[in-house]
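Q: Structure tokens for this one, please.
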Amino acid sequence: MLDGRGAIRRRAGARLWLSGGWLLLLVTVALFAPLVAPQDPLAQDLMSGRLPPFWSAQAEPGFWLGTDSLGRDVLSRVIWGARVALTVACIAGPLTALIGGALGLIAGFYRGWADRIISRLVDIWMAFPPVLFSILLIAVLGTGLTSIILAIVVIDWTRFARVVRAEAMNQGAMDYVAAAQVAGFSRLRTMTAEILPNVLPTLVALLSLEMGISVIVEAILSFVNLSLSTDAPTWGGMIAEGRTSIHQAWWVLAFPLVALFLTVLSFSQFGEGLKDRFDPVLR
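A: Here is the predicted structure, written as tokens:
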């Protein structure tokens, strides 16, 4: 049993180091984008269009990952696109976790009429296809980061509500909850001081996953021109542009796609590593 727990801790440590390292690098690059980016991401030079990456014989100094069809530096656009993606993830993720987690905790612990109302609301909300629902909301609210964040929060709070509700029900049946109530704890204190700490590892893992989903949603919406303006550097916009010239300039598609994949994967693995590392059962 101890060996099994040790193996879980070692795997959690590896996940945290690898995924956390990439996310830390991405956050650092995004924060200092004006200093790190070698070129202006919006600057166009048609004479320098579709320059290959630095290892190619046709590459030019200063354009490490090449240029797109308009001569814009791919590396600089990937860096500035990271700022957009992380802004959405770091705002939409916690807001979604706060709203959905609170409702799920109330439904799972108090049950009764509160559980019935919240559960029916979740069922109704999840009947709508999320991608179509998000596009509809953006069409109503208008484009922009604020609209994207609101759309993610409005759609994805149900994921937290369902998972946290189930976890709160499981924890509510434990002996330590009955002991707390016998000791004179109020229901609110029992929920916040006893249930919440044991639900927190699952909530953190789900939050990390939601941040990765937020990055994907922003990329999808920018891919169909429902995010920022067409010229703005976003990973989804770069992928949309790169797919039209993949045979002439594959790097325009490849580098934002790799950045998107690694970021989403890192968010997922970072959350799982935190859950395994700080799970009260394993501790």
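A few notes: Residues 5 and 282 are 6 Å apart (CA to CA). The mean pLDDT is 86.
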